[in-house]
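Morning, I've got a small favour to ask if you have a moment. You're getting the sequence in one-letter code plus the fold written as tokens. Thanks so much in advance, here it is:

===
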Amino acid sequence: MTQRLDDHRPVNGRSRAAGSALAANPTDSITRLAQRYTFRRPDEVAAFLHEHPRLSAVLLEASDVIPDYFGHDAPLFLEVFTDPETEPDARELFAIVRTSMEPDEAVARLDRLDEEWWLDASSDESGVLVVSIEFG
């Protein structure tokens, strides 16, 4: 099960130019993402990415950056979550890093990722993407 950390940052695309280029062909960008992430409930993830095509650019960049913090053997997943305590249509896409690190170490690395990359890559336009970790 995914552990959702309270310290997550929303994002809706890092580079408008890169996001626009990927948005021009969402099927191609989804194919590229599927080579880097395992989609949990693939149809739901693909539909979400079609609804938010500008996320592809930051997700592709994240798949290059995250291994620097969690190792190149850490699996990456994409999963759509709906919080039952919010509006029924309020969904978020989680980019999940599975790690076998001790929880304190994993949280410290997630904090470093936030400080050194994620805060610059994120935008406050919309809270639709969350980077999180799960233990396994």
Summary: The beta strands are 38-39, 76-82, 91-99, 129-135.
